[in-house]
UniProtKB/TrEMBL annotation:
Residues 12-72 form the 4Fe-4S Mo/W bis-MGD-type domain. Keywords: 4Fe-4S, Iron, Iron-sulfur, Metal-binding. This is Molybdopterin oxidoreductase family protein. Residues 617-723 form the Molybdopterin dinucleotide-binding domain. InterPro entries: Asp_de-COase-like_dom_sf, MoPterin_dinucl-bd_dom, Mopterin_OxRdtase, Mopterin_OxRdtase_4Fe-4S_dom, Prok_molybdopt-oxidoreductase. PANTHER family: NADH-QUINONE OXIDOREDUCTASE SUBUNIT G, RESPIRATORY NITRATE REDUCTASE. It comes from Isoptericola chiayiensis.
Length: 732
């Protein structure tokens, strides 16, 4: 059995949600006598008392803070519609309870039949960036060795793939933040592009205090978000470009840096390659021209460029950081836009230097680790390329299989979902920890593909929109019910610890994959003990860019016991214990010659044409109270009460023009379809732009109308900008 007795003592663990992985302690609650009764009191709606009380821990990323999501996270353990038994769709079309044996027998028989008919690639897997490192690793191994299918990808493709592609290309290795988050506090300037941490990860904001005090917080966002308001109050600058033109802002900033001779020439000569081509690529983007495209005043662009340069070490500043988030990354030119940000940081000599740098704010809880262990279509554990013969041989030797049997690269997420149930495409899909019906772009098309499958198996702990469509639902353990590791947005490997027993028949995916492997006749070993799986993962990663080979659960526990804050990869197994690598690239980049690559890029603009029938930009984003597809947070009564439904933010000028008053219902129509929600007037958005959070499905599920055009390099979809028509909903 995968179940182990839950400890009675408090468990030092981390929040189940975002990549900040705030430290928290979970104290099991025994009856009503608990000292933590305030948290353990019956949840609203008369639910059973929560099994644990949450309290924040002093961990470097959160320094004792938690956001509303973290404070209420224990509620997810006790949601009333928790899936506690396998469910199988019967002849009547309804999901009905089944035993594990019945469910797995059905799954195994159907997988066999489908693969007999369609070959190994007839079955696909869609994973998640919230899975532990151990589960992400086991999933990739299961796909390649048991199913032998190339068709595995995951929702991280929607999250950080363009930043990862740009980072890999520039630095030879991608670690979202190649420095500890706490380093940000010492900088004079932080340039934050397309990120809203004041809502998505509020405790992060304390790390911006140094830059705010220095008047150097610069937030680039078409919307005056909660984070932009932090810069707008005299402690920085809010740059508000036309949606989809962040690239132009970056090209113009670099133009100013070059034209005013603010570059770090020594650094460029010693540590980079490709600068001359990049100079040529920005020569035409003088600020006045950029202003005509991005709408940002030329003088603002000059001021930002000069402030950034003045903060750089070359000019005697305390340091500067350039940080990107989904706002600039979720674009069909996402890799190019992040490359423009990296070019700017490199020109100023910021990267690979203590106190300055470039980083990407990864969003999902294990968005970093999730991309390193092999659930990505093009990668093997250790963040190795799947088409690298040496990597294939090595990983195959750890798995005990012939490298010739390992499939090659599979389809990235959008292509994978689009190919489901098409001739030659997968006819069966396993979904692990992902709610694609809400989180994938052009989601109605995804629904069509899922409905056409011969077999849809969803492994989850709540009946998400996607789970409700499944032929078989398998109940899995979550967060505080299991042991494992996660890797924070800074590459810090941390322990997730069990605090409570899983309810009913919920089992870990590690057990599930081992059981399926056995039933499918595989002789490849799949461990069910997370510590054992981690040891294998660490071995498989040895020598790769993301080298975990010097780490183990025991070492991470020992480090934490003496107050250590987790260990950063790369942490290779060496004779003397390797200390891990908090700061990367201090001596050399991960490229063959140790130099960072500067790659010229240019502005292409959004794929949708914002004219004619659809004259308004739609941008999407998040709210403080909800996480990703909302499958968890919409079930937390306190959070649901605060933000119970989707809404459309629009500027009063636009509202007046199209006849939509504050509080009216409004319809947005794109080339993909239609959504409807309540309108909120606000001057936080531009008059040419509407904003919608994406945490819901149904009528107000905004991803039903977002674009599934993808970035040619990373396959990141263009979630962030699409063209819509804004239409009043008149009473029938
Ligand atoms: Fe921290 Fe993120 Fe959890 Fe909020 S959701 S408590 S910011 S880890």
């Amino acid at each position: 059995s995968s179940a182990t007795a839950a400890p009675a003592a408090p468990a030092a663990t981390h929040c189940p949600y975002c990549a900040l992985q705030c430290g928290m302690e979970l104290t099991p609650v025994e009856g009503s006598a608990s000292s933590a009764a305030a948290v353990a009191a019956p949840a609203p709606g008369g639910r059973a008392p929560l099994p644990v009380a949450v309290s924040p821990r002093d961990f470097p990323t959160n320094a004792g803070g938690l956001c509303q999501k973290g404070w209420t996270s224990a509620s997810v353990l006790g949601v009333p519609d928790r899936i506690t038994t396998p469910l199988v769709r019967g002849a009547d079309g309804e999901l009905a309870e089944a035993t594990w044996d019945e469910a797995l027998t059905l799954v195994t028989d159907r997988v066999r039949a489908i693969q007999d008919r369609h070959g190994p690639e007839g079955v696909a897997i869609f994973g998640g960036g919230g899975l532990t490192n151990e589960k992400a690793y086991a999933l990739g191994k299961f796909a390649r060795t048991v199913l032998r299918t190339p068709n595995i990808d995951y929702n991280g493709r929607f999250c950080m793939s363009s930043a990862a592609a740009a980072g890999n290309r520039a630095f030879g290795v991608d670690r979202g933040m190649p420095f500890p988050l706490t380093d940000l506090g010492g900088a004079d300037v932080v340039l934050l592009l397309g990120s809203n941490p004041a809502e998505t990860m509020p405790p992060f904001v304390q790390h911006l205090a140094g830059a705010r005090d220095a008047g150097g917080l610069v937030v680039v966002d078409p919307r005056r978000s909660a984070t932009a308001r932090l810069a707008d109050d005299g402690q920085g600058i809010h740059v508000q470009p036309v949606p989809g033109t962040d690239m132009v802002v970056l090209l113009a900033l670099l133009h100013v840096v070059v034209a005013e001779r603010l570059v770090d020439a020594d650094y460029l000569a010693e540590r980079t390659a490709g600068y001359d081509d990049v100079v040529r690529s920005v020569s035409a983007w003088w600020p006045e021209r950029a202003e005509t495209v991005c709408g940002v005043p030329a003088e603002t662009l000059r001021v930002v460029a000069r402030r950034l340069a003045a903060a750089s070490p070359a000019h005697g500043g305390r340091g500067a950081y350039v940080l990107t988030g989904r706002g600039v990354e979720q674009s069909a030119q996402g890799t190019a836009t992040v490359t423009a940000a990296i070019n700017l940081a490199l020109s100023l000599g910021l990267v690979g230097r203590e106190g300055s740098g470039y980083g990407c704010l990864t969003g999902q809880g294990n968005g970093q680790g999730g991309r390193e262990h092999g659930q990505k279509s093009d990668q093997l554990p250790g963040y190795r390329k799947i088409d690298d013969p040496a990597a294939r041989s090595y990983v195959a030797s750890v798995w005990g299989v012939d490298p010739e049997t390992l499939p090659g690269p599979g389809k990235p997420a959008v292509a994978l979902l689009s190919s489901l149930a098409t001739p030659g495409g997968p006819q069966a899909l396993f979904v692990h920890g992902s709610n694609v019906l809400v989180s994938a772009p052009n989601a109605d098309r995804v629904r069509e593909r899922l409905e056409a499958l011969d077999l849809l198996v969803v492994c989850d702990f709540v009946p998400s929109e996607t789970a409700r469509l499944a032929d078989v639902v398998l109940p899995v353990t979550q967060w505080a019910e299991e042991e494992g590791t996660m890797t924070s947005l800074e590459g810090r490997v941390i322990r997730r610890r069990q605090a409570v027993e899983a309810p009913g028949q919920a089992r870990s995916e590690l057990w599930l994959l081992a059981e399926l492997a056995r039933r499918l006749g595989s002789d490849v070993h799949f461990g069910t003990d997370p510590a054992e799986v981690f040891d294998e993962l660490a071995r498989a990663s040895a020598g790769g860019p993301a080298d975990y080979s010097g780490l183990s659960h025991a070492r991470l526990d020992a480090d934490e016991a003496v107050g250590g804050p987790g260990l950063y990869w790369p942490c290779p197994a060496t004779t003397a214990e390797h200390p891990g690598t908090p700061r990367m690239f201090l001596d050399a980049f991960g490229t063959p010659d140790g130099r960072a690559r500067m790659v010229p890029v240019d502005h292409g603009g959004p794929t949708d044409d914002v004219r004619g029938d659809a004259p308004t930009y739609l941008v999407t984003g998040r709210v403080l109270q909800h996480y990703q597809s909302g499958a968890q947070t919409r079930r937390v009564a306190e959070l649901d009460r605060l933000v119970p439904e989707p809404y459309v933010e629009l500027h009063p000028q636009l509202g007046l023009r199209v006849g939509v008053a504050d509080g009216d219902r409004v319809r947005l129509e794109s080339a993909r379809g239609v959504v409807e929600a309540v309108a909120r007037w606000t001057d936080a958005v531009r008059p040419d732009t509407v904003f919608m959070p994406f945490h819901w499905g149904g009528l107000g599920g905004v991803n039903r109308i977002t674009s599934d055009a993808v970035d040619p390099i990373s396959s990141m979809p263009e979630f962030k900008v699409c063209a819509v028509d804004v239409i009043p909903v008149t009473a029938a």
